[in-house]
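tl;dr need the bound structure. longer version: we got a ligand (magnesium ion) that a collaborator sent over and nobodys looked at where it sits. i said id run it. heres the input, straight from their email, havent touched it
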Amino acid sequence: MTALLFELLDVEKSYELRGGGAAFRPGPKRRLRALDGVRLTVARGDSVALVGESGSGKSTLLRVLMGLTSPTDGRALYGGQDVTQLKGERRAAFQREVAMVYQDARGSLNPRLPVLDLIAEPIRHHKLRAGPAVRDRVLELLDQVGLPAATLKRYPSQLSGGQVRRVAIARALASEPLTIVADEAVSGLDVSTQAQLLNLLVELQRRMGLTLIFITHDLGVASFLCDQIAVMYLGRIVETGPTRAILERPAHPYTQALLNAQPRFFAPIAQPLQGEIPSPIDLPPGCRFAGRCPRAVPACREDDPALMPSGQGRAVACIRPLTAAA
Amino acid sequence: MSETLLVDKIARRPAWWAGLGSYIRHRPFFILALLVTLAFLAIALLGTAVTPFDPTFQDMEAPMSPPSSTHWLGTDSYGQDLLSRAMAGARYAFLTGICSVLLGALGGLAVGLMAGLAGGRTEWFLMRIVDAILALPSLVMAIAFIAILGQGVDKVILAVGLALIGPFARTVRADVLQVRALPFVEAAGLMGIGKLAIVRRHILPNVFFPLVVQATIRISEAILVSSSLSFIGIGIVPPTPDWGLMIAEGRGFVSFAPWMSGVPGAALAILLIALAIVGDGIREQMDPKQRAGH
Ligand SMILES: Nc1ncnc2c1ncn2[C@@H]1O[C@H](COP(=O)(O)OP(=O)(O)OP(=O)(O)O)[C@@H](O)[C@H]1O
Ligand SMILES: [Mg+2]
């Protein structure tokens, strides 16, 4: 039996929005559902990629998962316990075992500390090394993420965006975590650096059974790094299952559209998604993808399909999935 | 290892000098103001060693004499040399200015940190007190404190310092609230770093530097307020050579001996303008957003 690490049970996260009105006369209260009935389980040793368009709720899902934001409905569990209610030893274990790489890498680093102190902080805090060994460990980590030793004395403001990202990854690795939760950790890096970091993560996965939850825009990265994939659309997971199977034979039309939009070699003209992404504030009834879906039938605009298992560990939220015939 | 670091240091040095050079070329007024400020500071530190006369020596032969070869800037009604008194006054200006700003900044840091970190009822209560203080100009506040404390150099420092706590507290609180919401503070909490360590390592350094910048800017305000206290006769007591006091003493003779108020007045005005320009320059240098524009 594999122990479930993270569980999201029908998580809903909505934000109250006010606005549109004049000064002192706030407009009507509106609810923005950033997450709407999300179910996700991650077992120890799993690697899960979260993909989806900008604004689909990926970062929000991570924040709920990490207990940084409380869901407005549903529960987020870590090791079977509510992640925001962890106490004592279990809380310490969570803090020690799970490391997060923020989407805003620069913002996640204290601008007043040099790189040495930034990376040494988790090492010292978790008492993983002592004395001069701390510095050696920091140098080793810098080398692993491909930064020169001279970076040690630099401050975040003296580093480029890509270098800052790598410092953030080194800092996450410094706590020797069992789980890494990363929000766009390798986007915006050049191909060779990206490859170096991905290989490093794959090796850690193999050697130490690292659990990975990885947000990415790059389906190539997702298939290289992660066994599982979850495709998000407007606050909901619309398709999930083994990465290879889903990318080879997508069941949800949205996944298919994402694949089409992905630029490929020898196919320079990527096919963009048709239509506008609807506002998450006033969702139309029925399937939220229906307005842009080439396969939509009138029934799609009436019932909101739930994420249903479709065999082989896959699940899809669609009444007319692409692989239904197969 | 040390080799690479040395290389790193050497590589960065020219950039520092180049930056300074271009700064002088682009900001001549800043450099001029800085030199003036440093000159006043040097005079304040050297004190009676460089004044031509003892600032409290009364030359009975030449009371109220206009500028002459013996008394370059003239004398006051007691025959005291105005140049010497103006130079000695610099010491009191800096003493009251710097000490009261230090006091105000430290008090403001404590109150602002407490309010920004505690939140809730404590914050509400502290900030309402600060609001009440801020509703009055710092001079009025200082007058109120003098009324309680009494007169003298130390009392003036205390009164002006207390009056400055409010403005400092407000900016510190705003900075704390801003820094506290930044991802690196959240990230530290996620790692399980204790509240105190987060404040010390992550919040304090990020509010301390803006505070230092603000303190340098507020020194001129503190000098002005303490001189005003002396001018209206409730600050530093005679015969201390304080500028505010000297201006007040010369006020009655302004029609036929204008140098009596003019000399300390000019000293005060020149120092305040110089300090304001220096303060602006420092703020621009410290503000990464403005610096990026260069
Ligand atoms: N604090 C907040 N207040 C109001 N709305 C929010 C807040 N945080 C997120 N949202 C909204 O929730 C939705 C999902 O945001 P989220 O940051 O999770 O998207 P994302 O999938 O991470 O996008 P990206 O790929 O651009 O990072 C967006 O519509 C966003 O505007
Ligand atoms: Mg995001």
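gonna send this back to them w/ a short note. The radius of gyration of chain A is 21 Å.
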